[in-house]
Here is the input.
Amino acid sequence: MVRESGIEVGLCVVTCLHTSASLLVTECADPSVQVDLRSWLERLAPDGDSLYTHTAEGPDDMPSHLKAAITRSTETLSVAAGALVLGVWQGLFLLEHRARPHQREVFVHVTGDPAG
Here is the structure.
């Protein structure tokens, strides 16, 4: 989307439009980083904890909101040379906090100076 925007230098704001998923910039070279991150989040907010009262959509309902609350719903990234500025090992990920996959939407806004 950044290249299609025609913005050469600026900012890209990405927003996850859900309360049970989030965004994260983290290492993208080794998939075990994502596995370990998900395991850590699960230990912090386990599914089915009997202390949760918000369970309308199942045992992963409240834990998914807690995981989203301690991560981010919006990431702002710099744009240079018409592309996102990320470190060699960085990637932007959408984290699904529900047990079963859901269709998710993100809103992307690119602003800045166009090429030319």
